[in-house]
Amino acid sequence: MEQICFAGIWILAGFINGISGMGAALVAVPFMTLFMDIQLIVPLSCILVTILSSVLAIKYRSEFHVKIILPALFCAVPGAVLGSYFLKILSSHILELVMAFTLIAYVVWNFMQKYEVAEERNSTVVGGICGFFSGFFGSTISFTGPPLAIYILYTGWKQQKALGALGSALIIITGTSCVSHYFAGFYTEEFLTYLYIGVPAGILGMLVSFPFIKYITQKNFRKILLVVIGFAGLMCLSRVIGYYCLG
């Protein structure tokens, strides 16, 4: 029964990831904690997100050039290093609280703005800043995607281009964590059992999502990203409240 539930969770997570480019772990992890240990959840989520991101990057490889996200990728490295340092001197719950208020405020501010179709734009500076915080919060509270999604919203890239960019960036950033998990000994027999279930389930969810993408307007795609970012902020806030009120 747990394996059936696990498959269902990742079908849903794959669907969300397919239409937004991120959010698979945000959807899956809360449900997985109901019946799985965190030492199993983290490496499973990491490698499944990497695999799903690879599918997106391959599908939309003709829609974008990797060089447009290089500033974000380069800056993610020092962000991850600095995040690891801060994690030693600050509570992860303080970082989660900062992340929560930042993301929620960003979403509220965006929904209050009047949407206007604008030309696509690239910015090395903004991309670098968002990449830095992607690495920083990825290494501290495992929330890599939201800062990258904020950059996608800034650029105004069309959905296919945005999905390809998010997929490519997350391959590299989360893939690095997968390597560290391997050498840490997290890839156990139980891990492989769930992995064999999660991979086809997640890909199935993504395949189901693809026909819907052509019906999603740029305005609605923006709203989807904002909802996922807001959900990430609420997740951070709930974890902090749960820790201080229930723990």
Automatic annotation (TrEMBL):
The chain crosses the membrane at residues 6-28, 40-58, 64-87, 94-112, 132-154, 166-187, 193-212, 224-244. Keywords: Cell membrane, Membrane, Transmembrane, Transmembrane helix, Transport. The keyword Mitochondrion does not apply. Its main location: membrane. It is found in: Cell membrane. It is a multi-pass membrane protein. Belongs to the 4-toluene sulfonate uptake permease (TSUP) (TC 2.A.102) family. This is Probable membrane transporter protein.
